[in-house]
Design goal:
By secondary structure, this protein is of the alpha+beta class. The protein folds into 3 domains: 21-104, Alpha-Beta Plaits, CATH 3.30.70; 129-253, 3-Layer(aba) Sandwich (Rossmann fold), CATH 3.40.50.200; 271-354, Immunoglobulin-like (Sandwich). It has helices at 2-16, 33-36, 41-51, 53-64, 86-93, 132-136, 139-143, 190-199, 230-242, and strands spanning 23-29, 68-74, 79-84, 98-103, 106-108, 129-130, 153-158, 171-176, 206-207, 215-220, 227-229, 247-249, 253-254, 271-278, 291-297, 304-309, 315-316, 319-320, 331-337, 346-354. A 4-stranded antiparallel sheet has the order 2-3-1-4, with helices on both faces. The protein has a 4-stranded parallel sheet with strand order 8-10-7-12, sandwiched between helices. The protein has a 4-stranded antiparallel sheet with strand order 14-20-16-17, with no helix packed on it. The longest helix has 15 residues, at 2-16. The radius of gyration is 25 Å and the shape is globular. InterPro entries: Peptidase_S8/S53_dom, Peptidase_S8/S53_dom_sf, Peptidase_S8/S53_subtilisin, Peptidase_S8_Asp-AS, Peptidase_S8_His-AS, Peptidase_S8_subtilisin-rel. Belongs to the peptidase S8 family. It comes from Methanothermococcus okinawensis.
Length: 357
Amino acid sequence: MNNKILLVLLLSIFILLPVVSAERIIVVLEDTDQIKKAEDLQTFKTAVLEYQEDILATIKNFEKEGKVRNVEQLWIINAIAMDADPEVIEELKKIKVVKKIVRDYPIELFSDTESYTPSKVDIKSGTPQIVWSVKWIEADKVWQWGINGSGVKVAVVDSGIAPHPDLEGKIIAWKDFVNNISQPYDDNGHGTHVAGTIAGTGKLDYKTGVAPGADLIGVKVFNESGRTDFYILLKGFQWAAENDADIISFSGGALPASGIEDTDYIPPYSTKEYLIEVYSSVFEEAYKPAFILVYVNSSDLKYLNISLIAPNGSVVHGDRMDNLIGNPEIEWCYKYMEKDKPLQSGDWTLKIQSTSG
């Protein structure tokens, strides 16, 4: 009899426990004109944080009710990340300033890093050899003009940077968003590969870096298996920006998820337009938008008319980039750039028209 009573009590306890299925989400907000026109990073950050105050107060109320957890502002994209219950997500969708809500999703490196050992060189000569990739883009010719990356800080947002003679003294800042280890390391290898491509000095043998004078900021966001989450990646970008990175290097890809368009269908004899937003007035001190690269893959490419339209309504003509594609019969790659100025600020349009049924 006692056993039966105990069983009933246990079942009662389990029934009374609430079932919570909170999701990690990123709430992206609409940008104001003040945010779009910010002329430097600090002004942009201040404008975003001030703009978020009202909706943040609403989210904090949900947090007090236990419906929201782990709230964090991502000013870098004017968004707020959180773990939210389904009912809260529905309420947030109704708020006017909310542009969209996306689920946090996994990101993975494109491929495993392969190691390659160059032919032996005469170390005694004291002159490092230059790898073919550096010569191929003629970076060594730019060095002759005294331009080698000196004074430039490059953030490598990746799997980390391992200590290496060719990178000695290069890592001037470090942040680990995976294991919170205070000293630079790399348990995957990809980030170190990238760091060497950027700033390898050739102290050991081969000079691998295109900018051997540059300094590195290590930001570890990928784990040992080469995986991370979109939210962690954004935190890495934000930290790099806050720590004075001039350039952010990122070599990763995204798994299929909501909000990412991998394919689209254009019915016969119809036209579709795709918006490309360019704001050259944002971050005046940074590198301004210089070119647009468009890639289209279709089994019926010959039946498509593809054009790029500038914000002023004019159709622009650039260059076919056949060297970047495998099969020109099914792949189309196009680059447009202004020779002596940034791209026009505003909404660019990629227009694709089907000419066959």
